[in-house]
Amino acid sequence: MEMREVMAPDQRQARRTAKREIVRQVESGATVSQARRGCPISLHRTTVYRLLKRVEHEGEHAFVERRYGHPIKLRGKCSPSC
């Protein structure tokens, strides 16, 4: 089983700051490619476009890291309301 590395709070803050900077540059007229080149973290082009769309729909909440992977499976009995 592969273990994922857990990010420290300062790493999360650095990613949020870098994402905000990319969005700011694109909103100022830079292309996505130009904004990515100046970014200290590596973000795939598609990820940047998804981020821009989320910012448009969610505002500041778009910069919060989201959980990835499969949802947790329920184990044991489920309540009758299921």
From TrEMBL:
This is Helix-turn-helix domain-containing protein. Residues 1-21 are annotated as: Disordered.
